[in-house]
Write a structure and sequence with these properties.
The longest helix has 16 residues, at 173-188. A 6-stranded mixed beta sheet has the order 6-7-8-3-9-10, with helices on both faces. The chain has a single domain (5-222), classed as P-loop containing nucleotide triphosphate hydrolases (Rossmann fold), CATH 3.40.50.300. It is an alpha/beta fold. A hairpin with a 5-residue loop joins strand 1 (5-13) and strand 2 (19-28). Helix content is 33%, strand content 26%. The structure holds adenosine-5'-diphosphate (ADP). Residues 14, 16, 18, 20, 38, 40-46 line the site of adenosine-5'-diphosphate. Adenosine-5'-diphosphate (ADP) binds at residues 14, 16, 18, 20, 38, 40-46.
Length: 229
Amino acid sequence: MANVILLDRISVMYPNKTVALSGVSLHITPKEFVTIVGESGAGKSTLTKLLIKEELPTSGKIVVGSIDYDTIDKANIPHLRRRIGVVFQDFKLLPNLTVFENVAFALEVSGVKTSEIKRAVPKILQLVGLAEKSANYPAELSGGEAQRVAIARALVRNPKILIADEPTGNLDPKNAWDIIELLIKINRFGTTVVLATHNKEIVNTLKRRVITLSRGRIVKDDKVGKYVL
Ligand code: ADP
């Protein structure tokens, strides 16, 4: 099926011999909202990096939709990156570009036409509630606003899957909830959301599927989960 995420017996050992993931098998269906929880060092970031092919597994198989990560060739990586949007704790915005330009940049690198960029960027900034900040620079934004720009940048390419690695880690509770509500909205529009977090309150209020990692292994996978560690 299109855009199913499949991990089959994935292990990751870093060059320093740290085993970050061990025998992880996982099946995420399209349009799911999945939270990945676990203490610091449990393997959450490694898992998200695998999905965007920033890390490679030491063993095991990853397939997302029709893309088999073992056989994907260089030419297909941009296709993968379009399909999977990603946001991080530290926003990773380009400081010398405005809000508009940060979002537009994601389209420019994919070779999208200027006319299409001019149409798509304001629309997505509207969706994340930042239309009026279009001409501002990242340094002029609050943490919550910066994260919404990062989400806009991920969404503007219309990904089927959005991966958020501790997106609320640098935010106060009010801004954190705004981001979570935005993720819920995006999920309602039909995008699969994979949210890695160690924020118990968020996970327990969301009442979505919770996958618990501990020392690189899945120790729990609950349909309507609670974060109990
Ligand atoms: P989490 O996101 O849950 O905090 P990580 O996936 O970042 O967990 O880390 C899992 C384990 O792998 C930890 O023991 C961490 O120290 C280790 N680790 C993460 N990245 C690297 C790396 N690039 N090189 C070596 N060890 C790493």
